[in-house]
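Researcher: Before we compare anything, I want clean individual predictions. No alignment, no superposition, just each chain on its own. First chain goes here; please echo the sequence and then give the structure tokens.
Model: Echoing the first chain and its structure:
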Amino acid sequence: MQVIYEDNHIIVVSKESGEIVQGDKTGDTPLSETVKAYIKEKYAKPGAVFLGVVHRLDRPVSGLVVFARTSKALSRLNTMFANGEVHKTYWAIVEAYPQTHPQGRGVQVDSQQQGVSLTHWLTRNEKQNKSYAYDHEVPGSKKAMLRYQVIGQSERYTLLEVQLMTGRHHQIRCQLSAIGCPIKGDLKYGAKRSNPDGSISLLARRIEFVHPVSKQSIVLEAPLPEETLWQAFGSKM
């Protein structure tokens, strides 16, 4: 865990792949407890430490996670996330170059943003912990939208910058897989092989929002993972 920003009301940390944000049935120590222990030790706080979980990242994903340190910040951040007032940018290393075009169903090129917008309808299978994408509405589905652009390329992989317009279960993983670009290491969504450390090559790279209490503009960026391919892409940026 690396602390990226902290004040009296919020703390933002860079999560490593493999960490869980909140406790689950595995019984593994969640990131939330690690952050509580950090706050308790740093500020010599007696008793229990308050920490509100505002959002989550999938276990194999790395990058920025925001926690609330006060109930006031938690309430306001929950509202901000629900209203789309928190802007998250992801970087994804995918196994193919996107072969999308304006005529593709669910695909639209946005010339002003110089990116590509994807729209699918996702259904979620709870038992499999997996989402499925359709190019039309089906019973039980939820509309999912994102925008991406290519920002890097190597001989075998492509680096995409992704902006989420909705927040659905496994949305980026599922939608990129649906256009033939599974994220490197993501076996669940069609990657050819796993990453050695069990991660998938998806990073919550940047987050932008207005501070829930001070109202200052906050723009934060996560460091790139130490893995060789991430560093190679980073050196070209």
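Researcher: Okay. Second chain, same rules.
Model: Second chain and its structure:
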Amino acid sequence: MPAPEPTPPRSSLPEAAAHFGAYVLADAAARARDITAATGGPPGAPVLPAPSADVPAPSAGLERVLRGPTGLGTAGLRLTLPEEPPAPAPAQGTPIPGLYHHPVPEPDPVRVEEVSRRIKSWALDEVSLYPDDWEEEFDGFSVGRYMVGCHPDAPTVDHLMIATRLMVAENAVDDCYCEDHGGSPIGLGERLLLAHTALDPLHTTREYQPEWAKSLHSDAPRRAYRSAMEYFAQTASASQTDRFRHDMARLHMGYLAEAAWAQQDHVPEVWEYLAMRQFNNFRPCPTITDTVGGYELPADLHAQPAMQKVIALAGNATTIVNDLYSYTKELDAPGRHLNLPVVIAEREGLSDRDAYLKSVEVHNDLMHDFETEAAALAADCPVPSVQRFLRGVAAWVDGNHHWHQTNTYRYSLPDFW
């Protein structure tokens, strides 16, 4: 007889929303009704309440309030599909057949150029991130296109640089400690722990503090972490900063699980692999979408189980996108790289093609769950910062796919169709 399912915990979202004051929600509801009447919205359709102090009041166009930011690259900021599909990206790269995704316009080229210029200057001049023979690979990563596409509501290039430095630093840790450039599972725990102190400072005695501070400059990953975190903390609140540290600890724990399997030459069960991928994934990137957007999702709303589920699903779906687009790249690399198609093929006895196609289905299920949960949360918690944060996470999901699809320097698709 199967064990009974545990009773789902009761959501405290209404209480969390009420924390901001019943008058805020009452006023938002009244304004939402006015907006619906003014724009002729369908009866019963969810509407975005009027902004509170953390979101600037609209100066023109009620439609913008309902839809979120507009302009180049902002199509992904809608939780529901627009009536008119967004303009497709230029014909660069091929989307995976059958993969559920939303096309987005090409990121703003002016911002891309400026972010690309600044991030390369930071990498070379401020943190000495890589030697000369890595320059082509750094340029081919196209991190400027990546971050501009994932954060279309960033108010300034300075805000975009917050995310871009952190993305580059995280990749330096992955490459240098775990994978491509001298990485190894052996001793990874020590390296990650010491690098994490660049994000979460060590508080020790006066005798030993200088040695720790000196260690933060000892290798490229720690230099990058330290610098990127300093820039982030200058803009982020204390709560946002601690939130990011927490998600980076999750990421590092996922790295360690994968490293343990590599040392044991072990292929996990599919569900075990997906559990690892919920930690070793992109989660730290969309979780800072409010900081990059120039506002804050309050801590008690970010911590709600429903919000955590939405963020987790977004991270899981976007990480499987990486598994799928990097599949041939990893097959060509030395050693065995675990990704979802490889694990499904091994554990479920499927051909490489069938395992890959099943992985596409897993991604699509995660994407549908993400959109369902995000829409439900938006309806249950009509607080402006929640609405905007959910739009920002959706934009990150769409921008992440667009970058993977169009980055033909790094990725190509297998011949399975």
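Researcher: What stands out in the second chain?
Model: The two ends are 43 Å apart (CA to CA). Additionally, The longest helix spans residues 352-380.
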